[in-house]
């Protein structure tokens, strides 16, 4: 019992180190970008803090991209120190038979569910205030270059990086110390907490559960990456405004659940054999 408990504590600690390493890298890149921008653009002594915040917000997605790339190099180095090479931790079994259509169904179901959640959350004071108090980063996408960076980061880089971190590294580590359901649950908590504000954290937790389950079932990181990419990509085209009445909300909720359940059952049927190859 004591050995099991100590192993659980150890894998939690290791997972926390990896997540904290990325968060610190993000902060370091933003600070560097802010002060570099001040040095290049602002006469000394005039509105330093205001200009610092503006520079970071207007380059937030570029900073995120740089932090993700640098973090991958850091994770590679950490893996060498731990004698667990990064490429060996990530599983891509049966890559040519990736269940793409089930993954797309799950992603669309999640996105539709989030649209329903957004309507309901607008009626809850604490969630509505969470959105109102957050920074609208879209207002800083003011040029084709910034739009391109936003799309690349949101649809490609963030899904790839976050799945490598939260499923490929964190969940794999947690499976060494926890039963499967608990490992997926805790991994989803890490994923949710990393997204910051309360409004976003609630739905990313449930999305994280599905991403973790899909990675575990398929032993193929590209499956969860694909779900994540489609989910993020459809953000741009599924700002549902029609969901204003009870009937529409009910229909959308049923459709979202049906899509997710159908996708999960289809994916499970495509990957019937589950072993314990996570050591």
Write up this protein.
The chain is mainly α. Helix content is 76%, strand content 0%. Helix 3 (60-82) packs parallel to helix 7 (144-174) and helix 5 (100-121) runs antiparallel to helix 9 (198-218). The protein has 11 helices and no strands. It is globular and about 55 Å long. The protein has one domain.
Write the layout of secondary structure elements.
Elements: H1 2-41, H2 48-58, H3 60-82, H4 86-89, H5 100-121, H6 125-132, H7 144-174, H8 180-193, H9 198-218, H10 221-233, H11 246-270
Helix pairs in contact: 1-2, 1-3, 1-7, 3-7, 5-9, 5-10, 5-11, 7-8, 7-10, 8-9, 9-10
DSSP strand content: under 5%
The class by helix and strand makeup works out as: mainly alpha
Kindly state the percentage of residues in helix: over 70%
Q: Residue-averaged pLDDT, rounded?
A: 83
Could you tell me the number of beta strands? 0
Radius of gyration over C-alpha positions, nearest whole angstrom? 20 Å
The number of domains is 1
What is the number of helices?
A: 11
The span between the termini is 19 Å
What composes the largest sheet? none
Instruction: Write the element-wise H/E pattern from the N-terminal end onward.
Output: HHHHHHHHHHH
Low-confidence stretches: 44-48
Mass-distribution shape: globular
What are the key terms here?
single chain; mainly alpha; 279 residues; 11 helices
In short:
The chain is mainly α and 279 residues long. The chain is built from eleven helices and no strands. It has one domain (2-270).
């Amino acid at each position: 019992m004591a050995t099991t408990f100590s192993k659980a504590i150890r894998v939690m600690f290791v997972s926390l180190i990896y997540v904290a390493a990325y968060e610190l890298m993000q902060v370091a890149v933003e600070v560097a970008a802010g002060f570099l921008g001040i040095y290049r653009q602002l006469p000394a002594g005039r509105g330093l803090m205001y200009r610092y915040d503006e520079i970071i917000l207007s380059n937030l997605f570029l900073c995120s991209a740089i932090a993700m790339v640098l973090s991958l190099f850091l994770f590679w180095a950490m893996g060498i120190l731990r004698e667990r090479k990064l490429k060996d931790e990530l599983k891509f079994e049966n890559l040519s038979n990736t269940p793409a259509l089930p993954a797309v169904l799950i992603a669309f179901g999640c996105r539709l569910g989030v649209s329903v959640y957004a309507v309901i959350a607008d009626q809850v004071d604490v969630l509505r205030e969470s959105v109102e108090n957050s920074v609208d980063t879209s207002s800083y996408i003011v040029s084709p270059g910034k739009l391109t960076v936003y799309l690349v980061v949101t649809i490609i880089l963030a899904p790839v990086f976050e799945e490598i971190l939260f499923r490929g590294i964190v969940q794999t580590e947690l499976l060494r110390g926890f039963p499967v359901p608990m490992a997926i649950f805790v991994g989803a908590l890490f994923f949710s907490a990393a997204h910051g504000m309360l409004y976003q954290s609630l739905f990313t937790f449930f999305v994280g559960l599905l991403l973790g389950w899909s990675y575990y079932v398929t032993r193929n990181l590209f499956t969860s990456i694909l779900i994540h990419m489609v989910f993020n990509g459809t953000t741009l085209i599924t700002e549902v405004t029609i969901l204003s009445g009870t009937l529409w909300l009910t229909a959308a909720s049923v459709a979202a659940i049906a899509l997710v359940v159908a996708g999960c059952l289809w994916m499970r049927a495509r990957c019937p054999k589950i072993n314990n190859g996570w050591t």
